[in-house]
Amino acid sequence: MLPTSGGRPPYPRIKLAVVGGGSTYTPELIDGFARLRDVLPLAELVLIDPATDRLELIGALARRIFAAQGHPGRITWTDDLDAGLDGAHAVLLQLRVGGQAARNQDETWPLECGCVGQETTGAGGLAKALRTVPVVLDIAERVRRRCPDAWIVDFTNPVGIVTRALLTHGHKAVGLCNVAIGFQRKFATLLGVAPEQVELEHLGLNHLTWERAVRVNGDDVLPELLAAHGDAIAAHLRMPRALLDHLGAVPSYYLRYFYQHDAVVRELHTKPSRAAEVAAIERQLLDLYADPSLAEKPALLGQRGGAFYSEAAVGLTASLLRTRPEGLAPEGAGGAGGGGRALEAGGAGGATGVGGPTGVVGGPTRGGAAARVGATRGGGGHGATAEPGGAHRAHQIPGPGDTHGAPRTPGPGNTHRSPQTPGSVDTHRAPQTPGSVDTQIVNTFNNGTFSFLPDDAVIEVPATVTSRGAAPLPLRPLAPLFSGLVAHVTAYEHLALEAALKGGRDRVFSALLAHPLIGQLDHANRLADQLIAHNREHLTWA
Q1: Which residues partner with 290 through β-bridges?
Q2: In the chain, N or C: fewer CB atoms in 10 Å?
Q3: DSSP assignment, residue 353?
Q4: Based on the number of CB atoms within 10 Å of its own CB, is 251 exposed (0-12), middle (13-18) or buried (19 or more)?
Q5: Region entry Disordered: which residue ranges (predicted)?
Q6: Dist CA 33 CA 58 (whole Å)
Q7: CA distance linking residue 36 with residue 38, whole number of Å
Q8: pLDDT at 151 over 50
Q9: Helices and strands (H and E) in the chain: how many
Q10: pLDDT in tens, 208-234
Q11: Eight-class DSSP state of 79
Q12: Which residues on adjacent β-strands are paired with residue 386?
């Protein structure tokens, strides 16, 4: 058990379920749980996946990793979703419906129309959303029945759309991505400081974000960072240095699909898909995992993607479950939050003296809109992903009068705070008791953060995280150079979610026509037909 604080009882050890536990990326997560056991004290970890052959290999390796690092927790695995969920305090979703084969299609058939082929962006991202949302909502309903108090942490791509589906259906859920923590670690290296000293003003939508400020000890050092290391950062992003200078910000590498779309399409025509690369890596990883002497995550796993995903996951889960003693900031979980800032009754307020999960015992901090990096996930572009195949029963597409209810349709000026869906997490900006919150970068409801978006849009920003959920910190307005694209993609995501929930070619066509990377009648028509043809086995309405 964790140490006590202020005479309070020790924090309980917990059970965590990982749906998609047969992913080849799971050992990264296991390694983080083992190293950061004082942050997230697991008594039981259950890996759930219908792919029993992979699950046996990865479960056995997970036990060896725990044993090698002296973790006392119990690891089990099962292909029975309901049994695995029983008694869980938190459920991590890292699944890939259709596996790498479906991903390979997502990354190839859009190229025939001259559009980017990518698993979370453009037509391929829409295909993944249509396959994934019904399965995730079915899993979430079963979480609600088997462990109704459990938090759902979503790593499953496309995170923004999937998290919006979960929240609008009243589930206790927060979305997580590893882009922010990756930038934090890279900037810390370039600046020669510890990661926990670096705070990011990271904002936008999932896979559509910019680092607008980089703070060290409260001071924005982004201008100095770009002056000294702009060429290296631009090379890492594969974007022109002049673009970073013009933006005055560091864009996510996913923005290359928007800023350099045609050049990316030409590149993708000349090489194998990322899915093919990942599939080859996975075959090698599974051979390594079968070695009974292996008791650590292999170096090859670093090529699978999703760097620092485990640190981000541990930090966010610990904040939601409140397993961190007050005033204690454990070493190593640098991927989430920072400074333990509380929102006081007056708004953003000042920082409390409570440490976030960044290895720093709190003290006064500045720059209330920035966060020491929040959580995310990833592998092969974003995701630590597994292949639960089609083993889970498909979620019913809501129709008129369906008790789940589709997301409300945003209308002009619809930025007021609507009542929460019964049973949903409270993501309003309620005052917090100093010492009760951590700050992390997560995906959650907008709720007025960006005035040009509806409340039920899901954004990726710094937020205070408590056992009640995530509440975005107040942010300076976005300039039109950024807000225009954010608003455009948000409209697409709304239409994409409607297509995923209700089905139908017309809804698929509308989402494609609205997407800023497609938006042409002929392309949208052709892509709609191809999407349905390539995904018919996963679309109950097709």
Answers
A1: none
A2: N
A3: S
A4: buried
A5: 355-436
A6: 15
A7: 5
A8: yes
A9: 16, 14
A10: 999 999 999 999 999 999 999 999 999
A11: S
A12: 95
**261: pLDDT strictly greater than 90:** yes
Residues 265-300 as b/e (b if ≥16 CB within 10 A, e otherwise) read beebeeeebbbebbbebbeebeebbeeeebeebbee
Structure tokens belonging to residue 268: 């993708």
Residue 377 CA to residue 312 CA, distance in Å, equals 7
Q: Residues of the chain with pLDDT > 90: what percent?
A: 74
* 181 close to 335: Cβ distance less than 8 angstroms: yes
CB atoms within 10 A of CB 5: 14
331, 360, 316, 327: which is closest to 217 by C-alpha?
A: 360
Is residue 254 among the annotated active site residues? yes
pLDDT in tens, 29-80: 999 999 999 999 999 999 999 999 999 999 999 999 999 999 999 999 999 9
Q: Residue 184: what pLDDT?
A: 96
| Beta-carbon-side half-sphere exposure of residue 126 (alpha carbons within 13 Å) | 36
Rounded to 5°, angle at Cα 122 from 120 and 125: 30
Element (H, E) at 15: strand 14-19
Provide the pLDDT for residue 323.
Answer: 72
Sign, CA torsion 122/124/125/130: positive
H helix or E strand, kind and range, residue 159: helix 159-168
Task: Name the residue type at position 387.
Answer: E
DSSP state of 70: T
Cβ(309)–Cβ(153) below 8 Å: no
Q: What is the mean pLDDT of residues 365-389?
A: 34
CA distance 535 to 542: 9
pTM: 0.82
Record the tokens describing residue 190, joined without a space: 């370039």
Across the range 227-243, mean pLDDT stands at 98
pLDDT digit string, tens, across residues 423-458: 334 433 333 333 445 899 999 999 999 999 999 999
Cis peptide before 477 (omega within 30 of 0): no
| Strand, coil or helix: 359 | coil
Q: What is the dihedral of CA 449, 452, 458, 462, to 10 degrees?
A: -30
Residue 202's beta-bridge partner residues?
211
Euclidean distance between CA atoms 110 and 116, whole angstroms:
6
Gap between the Cα atoms of 132 and 150, Å rounded? 21
- SS3 label, residue 457: coil
Res 229: pLDDT: 98
What average pLDDT does the chain have?
A: 82
Q: What one-character DSSP code corresponds to residue 72?
A: -
CA angle 340, 317, 138 (to 5 degrees): 140
Query: Which residue has 């924005």 as its token pair?
Result: 220
Query: What percentage of the chain reaches a pLDDT higher than 70?
Result: 77
CA end-to-end distance (rounded Å), the chain: 51
pLDDT band, residue 385 (cuts 50/70/90): very low
- Among 11, 254, 289, 309, the active-site one is 254
